[in-house]
Amino acid sequence: MQRLIALLIMVIPGIAGVVGIKLMRDVLFGIHYGFGALWLQFAAGLILFVCGLSFVAGFVFYRDRKRNKVQTRFQKK
Q1: Which of 1, 2, 39, 45 is deepest in the core (most CB within 10 A)?
Q2: What gap in Å lies between CA 29 and CA 6, rounded to an integer?
């Protein structure tokens, strides 16, 4: 059960990142969704992508740091 919860915690930000990439890509092709302007759609996609990517990267970094698999400058003091 705990592994399923952990998987869901990792999948939700990943999906947000994918949706962000899709929104930014659709701006390049001129496809509108429920946003008022294309720049607003691009900004929303960029925010979703950056938040999703930073969450996943932070989780991987925290896990690797806990297992001492990072460089010495990133290890806990």
Answers
A1: 45
A2: 36
